[in-house]
Amino acid sequence: PAMVCGSSVAIEDDAVVIGAPGATNPSTGETYAGKAELYRFLFGARAPTSLQRIATLRPIAGSNQYLGRDVAINRTAIVVGAPEATITQASQGRGYVYLRPEVSWTGNASIQADAVIGSPANGADDDFGAAISVSDRNLVVGVPKADAPSAADAGRADTYTFDRINAGGFE
Q: Is the pTM for the entire model greater than 0.90?
């Protein structure tokens, strides 16, 4: 399968996140698991001259998640959408939150998610995580195919606040 690297990109200061939703997990062979790559700009005289790969961000186990369909970054977190992830039904979707360690993003072969957001209450094919945006303390996740009481696939946006993280995600 095609990796589709670069289908989503985000930048904050010298950190760059690049999504590759079609990537196969080389450890498990799971196709379309997806991934996101974290890079840092290396600066020459005054301009960035190249990117240095810092880490690979992968989903929890499962094929067909398409992690990296959308990515967002701020000074303290990276959020990566996996809109095709299955929780209890196909394509309910998830978001993976990776918190920056203390001072800066540092080299690590693979970073595990600090929190996973999404809900079994999402319906099949809702695609939670198809669009993501993060600011200082707020996170907005697009759910473009969520049903509304009066219309199928009307869509919605879910909001979260970074006040604290628990085992189930943000509160």
A: no
